[in-house]
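Saturday, quiet lab. Running sequence design on the structure tokens for the scaffold JK sent over.
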């Protein structure tokens, strides 16, 4: 784990996750998104010729009644920033951490987008389009004609008193651009495997890594690649990147005097068993491969 927080990097504390294959996940399921949203798919969505699947149709049939469109104007400068350091009690913690995601990513248009805990209420924060520490390209976990539900950076509360789990929120479809990703990361802690999954199949990235010890566990569930950077000051990484995730430690308020406890994949010389502060310790080639994944790539951590 990181020794001291660096001004250009957060301290990593938890491990990487993997996105479980679910009925709703389809490799490039743009038609899945269109089915959930109706026929008015915006031009911002990248076109995709992949036909919808029966599982996608079932997901669409099971979708909840759509929320009403909201065309209100909001001054996002008056709304709390949602980023890796934010603590916002109004932002929900993911209520379905082992649930599915789509292969659709959302990024705010303009300077940023208002974030809603409830599409029928007022916004509780704002997600910027650009941020030094990333976290602005986020995976969609649910979609309707006028709304998308996404995973978010930041925390609802600070452990041990508050819940530091993966947060979620709703964005208006008109406020975001939508793209697709053809891959996701799947981590199985018990099996000690990490795969990048795509239409081409499974690419085994690692079958030997360390994860969180019982007192500082690796969080499980869905999250995403938030930010990737090299931090020379973290000498234990030996020049390999830090791949930070959108989820933070379930038990730590911060790490090594820092104010965040961010999960990450990173290099470490000892890579076996439940020995970390929550991060996943990998060898150099594995970290370097994961560092090639773009921001927003879904990640699912299975126990």
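Result came back. Writing it out in full:
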């Amino acid at each position: 784990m990181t020794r001291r927080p660096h001004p250009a990097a957060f301290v990593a504390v938890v491990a990487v996750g993997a996105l479980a294959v679910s009925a709703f996940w389809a490799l490039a399921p743009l038609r899945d998104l269109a089915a959930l949203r109706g026929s008015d798919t915006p031009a911002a969505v990248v076109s995709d010729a992949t036909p919808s699947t029966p599982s996608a149709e079932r997901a669409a049939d099971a979708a909840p009644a759509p929320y009403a469109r909201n065309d209100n104007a909001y001054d996002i400068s008056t709304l709390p920033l949602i980023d890796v350091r934010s603590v916002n009690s109004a932002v929900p913690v993911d209520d379905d951490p082992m649930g599915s995601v789509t292969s659709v990513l959302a990024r705010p248009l303009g300077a940023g987008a208002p974030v809603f805990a409830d599409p029928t209420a007022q916004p509780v924060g704002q997600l910027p389009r650009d941020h030094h520490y990333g976290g602005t390209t986020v995976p969609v976990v649910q979609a309707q004609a006028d709304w998308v539900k996404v995973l978010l950076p930041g925390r609802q509360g600070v452990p041990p008193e508050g819940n530091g789990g993966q947060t979620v929120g709703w964005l208006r479809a008109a406020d975001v651009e939508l793209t697709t990703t053809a891959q996701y990361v799947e981590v199985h802690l018990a099996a000690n495997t990490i795969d990048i999954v795509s239409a081409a199949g499974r690419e085994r990235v690692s079958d030997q890594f360390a994860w969180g010890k019982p007192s500082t566990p690796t969080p499980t569930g869905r999250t995403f690649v938030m930010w990737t950077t090299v931090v020379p000051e973290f000498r234990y990484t030996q020049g390999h990147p830090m791949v930070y995730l959108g989820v933070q430690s379930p038990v730590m308020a911060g790490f090594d005097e820092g104010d965040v406890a961010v999960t990450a994949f990173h290099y470490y010389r000892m890579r076996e068993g439940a020995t970390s502060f929550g991060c996943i310790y990998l060898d150099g080639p594995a970290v370097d491969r994961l560092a090639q994944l773009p921001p927003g790539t879904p990640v699912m951590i299975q126990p």
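Notes for JK: The mean pLDDT is 83. The longest strand covers residues 221-229. Ask whether to fix the surface positions before the next round.
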